[in-house]
């Protein structure tokens, strides 16, 4: 007797949990599908099962037919907010490093050399591209990105649901680890 039939023989019918019944049905269906698909692969699978400790990894073929748009919207919103925060922090760090490295003074000096004259002595690039202006613009872009990415992801879920209704969805094959 195999390990499956021993456990089935010792339990009363109907005493198996839902998870055991589902996994049993999946493994039986997968075994039947493999056996009917290729008789040589059945022999190879049986030989591999004997050498790997007697247990083959179970496989289940599932079809993704619907994605919940509300779930997609919540998840994409949170990921978009995280992306926006990372963007603002990255721009602040880059802007601070450029300021500490003296890039803005070099730009001021270059503009004074190119234009020349006394009117350029008061020129400062930070008057036009200051840290507060750049961070304000970055926050505006981050907020727009949050709205757009959330809307596009939710729209994508609706479009996938319509396409899956027509075409059947994406087919996945799930398998256990071979440990």
From TrEMBL:
Keywords in UniProt for this one?
Membrane, Transmembrane, Transmembrane helix
Q: Which residues form the DUF3566 domain?
A: 57-176
Signal peptide as annotated in the record: none
InterPro entries per UniProt: DUF3566_TM
Ranges annotated as spanning the membrane: 76-98, 137-160
Region (Disordered), start-end ranges: 1-58
Question: What name does this protein carry?
Answer: DUF3566 domain-containing protein
UniProt source species: Nocardioides donggukensis
């Amino acid at each position: 007797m195999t390990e499956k039939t021993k456990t089935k023989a010792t339990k009363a019918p109907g005493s198996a949990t839902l998870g055991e019944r589902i996994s049993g049905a999946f493994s039986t269906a997968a075994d039947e599908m493999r056996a009917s698909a290729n008789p040589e692969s059945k022999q190879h699978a049986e030989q591999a099962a004997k050498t790997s400790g007697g247990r083959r990894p179970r496989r289940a073929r599932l079809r993704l037919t619907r994605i919940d748009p509300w779930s997609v919207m919540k998840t994409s919103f949170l990921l978009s907010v995280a992306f926006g925060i990372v963007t603002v922090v990255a721009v602040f760090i880059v802007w601070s490093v450029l300021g500490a490295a003296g890039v803005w003074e070099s730009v001021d000096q270059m503009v004074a050399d190119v234009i020349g004259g006394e009117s350029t002595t008061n020129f400062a690039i930070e008057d036009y591209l200051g840290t507060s202006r750049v961070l304000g613009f970055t926050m505006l872009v981050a907020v727009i990105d949050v709205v757009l990415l959330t809307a596009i992801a939710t729209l994508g879920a609706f479009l996938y649901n319509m396409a899956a209704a027509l075409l059947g969805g994406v087919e996945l094959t799930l398998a256990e680890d071979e440990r």
